[in-house]
Amino acid sequence: MPNGGTNNARDPKQPAPGDRLDSWKEIGAYLKRSVRTVTRWEQEQGLPVYRHKTGAVYAYKPEIDAWWAAHRKQIQVEIDNESAVALSPRKARSPWIVVSAGVAALSMAVALGWFAFRSPPRRTAKSVPLTAYPEIEGPPSLSPDGNQVAFHWKGDIWVKAVDGDGVRNITDTPGAEEASPAWSPDGRWISYVKNRAEVMVSTPLGGTTTRIASIKASPWGGTLAWVPDSKSLVIAEVPSEGNKIQAHLAMVSIATGEKKQITFPPGPGIGHFWPTVSPDGRSVAFAEFPQDSSANIYIQPLDGGVPRRITDDKANIRGLSWTPDGRELVFASDRNGVFRLWRMTAQTAAQGTPAGLVRLLSVFLNMRSRPASAQIVEGAGEDARFPSFSRPGPGRPVRLAYQQYRENQYIRRTALAGDSSSRMSSTSERLLYSSRSESEPQFSPDGHKIAFTSDRSGAWDLWVSDGQHEPVRRASMEGPPVLGPRWSPNSRQLAFFAPTGAAGNYQIYVVDESDGKPQLLSRDERYADFLPSWSHDGQTIYFGSGRGGKTQIWKMPARGGNPVQVTKGGGGDAWESLDGRLLYYTKVPEEGPGLWSVPVDGGEEHKVLDGPWFKGWALTQKGIFFGDWAAEGDGSKPVKFFTFKTLPITIGSVEKTDTGYLPSLTVSPDGRWLLYTSRERVDADLMLVDSFQ
Asked: What is the DSSP track for 215-251?
């Protein structure tokens, strides 16, 4: 029988179908106990649980049954008394702890002087489950006293006691989507966004709801943050007029709803997200995204000034928060392959510094210092996002809540009819899958191999499968994700892109399948180059790029060279026609669906179809296959086929698990198989670090 403390090395033989439990939530449900209880049993009673390299857990029902039979009598008393223990009052913390912490903090502040270049000594805390409801909970927002947490769940905003099981919804609006809750620093209000169009505030008890302002929120989220005086909010919004898609930050008055833009993102890019205001109310930190999967953190004075970059990553960011003492920023990043919480000094001026001097210091620091290093937040686990802090007070420590988000994507295969209709089979099968995620499949032109990306090794790398043996990893960037693999016409090379340029800009690489050594093709890391594809003669690579100020299709020699712009009206994902005369392309997701064509040497741009989305289409000898991801309803989504001569026809559909994002498609050269990325499972719970140091 494996022991709960040593279950990382061995895995039993493959169990019968349905015998595997793939999360703490499933293990708890099988034993009919809470997640907190089964995690304790694993540590104290040797509950047989296994861990992947990434930290995800799983168990097998036969082993759980055997453990239960052996330990039932031993833990029966604990089970009988668990409810009484849970209801017993918590012991008050000694005021001497608070006094000591205050003295230590004061001493540290004096030693550091104007800037907090070092973090205070801290002990390792441990995260425990805060919620374990079905579906997705979060992001969280802790009340200032740390006794309650507000979060999004099932389209509404809910509030739960941190030390209890009671939960109540403070919004209940049929047909509305209410998200992004944020608790005001004075504890009186919870703000949220309704239908991505309105900023609302409600009392923590619900009932009293007020509309503050209209907003055009970006689908990327990261919307609200309070100013410490609880009189204003900082929001991330997209301009309501024109066709700009970049989010900026604006200050909104709670009393009047008046908005004032405070950040001005450079273009092109996705913009500014995850605002958080320093505890002294003088600075705002935010994440700037040059593209969707990489970002860096900036700080600027709240009343205007020069943004100062404090990270230099090639990674994504999902959530950002100032620590209550104002010395550090805690953020969620996949900089080591998996999302975790990181902490780093914010290097902000001490309280009492005049605002003008703060601006001067921000410029000075921007010129003189390189971004500080970050450390993992001890006690918070993997798959962590959206940190939220309580505020310290007499007899209470600082609490940290975050969302633990886990997702499985598989690559599915469905058969296509051999005739001109290309009808899809009504069923599909899992083709490439693991305990993590697989994405972006691409058939090789000779039909013998499938390239795809996967984080099965802990980071998103490039893998190749021949359908007969275990997939083989063909390229890795040792941290930054490998994205968008595309085969060369001879099926020997693969082009892909990765966020390795300045500030995490995408750069294009080519790798020979035989040696696995990526070669950089992009010539200027200041610009984001992405989604490369080959011409049919193998001499040219087309790609999307923001180098012209707007995302367009460009091309360059396959061996490297100066790029040449092809489109003028926007573009992101392109494939050359089989005769080499036209380029078919879609635009970036923020500009919506549609398929266009343009001569390969440039010229008049013509809209071909309304339906295809970025990456969700495949060009073949017969025509174009695409998923109609914008179709109404929450059920399965249609897959359509366009022959170049007739209107698109619906040939089948993909499962409900594929809705809510933009999966990629590929069709085998012989037209027999269609592969697509399927989101099989998404689960998110809230976690708590009870005493953050």
From this structure: ----TT---EEE-TTSSEEEEEE--SSTT---BEEEE
Tell me which DSSP letter residue 267 carries.
S
pLDDT in tens, 149-180: 999 999 999 999 998 888 898 998 888 889 99
Least confident range from 11-20, 174-183, 351-360: namely 351-360
Cα–Cα dist 99/279, whole Å: 21
Q: 50: buried, middle or exposed (CB in 10 Å: 19+, 13-18, 0-12)?
A: buried
Strand partners, 673: 415
CB atoms within 10 A of CB 621: 9
Cα–Cα distances (Å) from 473 to 385, 409, 480, 507, 513, in that order, read: 28, 18, 15, 20, 10
Place of tokens 């649980």: 49
Q: Are 400 and 692 in contact (CB under 8 A)?
A: yes
Q: At a CB cut-off of 8 Å and minimum separation 6, what does 597 contact? A: 577, 582, 583, 584, 585, 605, 606, 608
Amino acid at 543: F
SS3 467: coil
CA–CA–CA angle 637, 638, 641 (5° rounding): 150
Closest CA to 440 of 410, 469, 468: 410
**In Å, what is the CA distance from 142 to each residue of 92, 138, 596?**
20, 11, 47
Which tens digit of pLDDT belongs to each residue from 530-586? 999 999 999 999 999 988 778 999 999 999 899 999 999 999 999 999 999 999 999
Query: Of residues 457 and 632, which shows the higher confidence score?
Result: 457
Residue 679 near residue 407, CB atoms below 8 Å: yes
Give the dihedral sign, CA 619/623/629/634.
negative
Q: Residue 557, preceding bond cis, omega within 30 degrees?
A: no
3-class secondary structure, 566: coil
The closest of 334, 341, 381, 344 to 479, measured between CA atoms, is 334
SS (H, E, C) 520-552: ECCCCCCCCEEEEEECCCCCEEEEEECCCCCCE
Q: What confidence score (pLDDT) does residue 88 get?
A: 35
Q: Please calculate the CA angle 586-589-593 and round it to the nearest 5 degrees.
A: 55
Would you say residue 54 has pLDDT above 60?
no
In the sheet that holds 248-253, the strands lie side by side as 224-226, 232-237, 248-253, 259-261
pLDDT value, residue 669: 93
What is the rounded CA–CA span in Å between residue 375 and residue 260? Answer: 35
Angstrom distance (rounded) from CA 144 to CA 392: 8
- Write down the H helix ranges in 88-172: 95-112
DSSP state of 656: G
pLDDT above 80 for 243: no
Per-residue pLDDT for 643 more than 70?
yes
Q: What's the token pair of residue 57?
A: 């857990």
Read off φ and ψ for residue 174, nearest 5 degrees.
Answer: -55, 135
For 294-305, b/e burial (b = at least 16 CB within 10 A) is bbbbbbbbbbeb
For 601-619, the pLDDT digits (tens) are: 889 999 999 989 998 999 9
Residue 503 DSSP SS3: helix
Q: In what helix (H) or strand (E) does residue 640 lie, and over which residues does it extend?
A: strand 637-642
Cα angle: 225, vertex 266, 231; to 5 degrees = 20
Q: Is 290 helix (H, G, I), strand (E, B) or coil?
A: strand
Q: Where are the beta strands (DSSP E) in 370-527?
A: 375-376, 384-389, 400-415, 429-432, 438-443, 450-454, 461-465, 472-475, 483-487, 493-498, 507-512, 519-520
Q: Using the 8-state DSSP alphabet, how is residue 620 labeled?
A: -
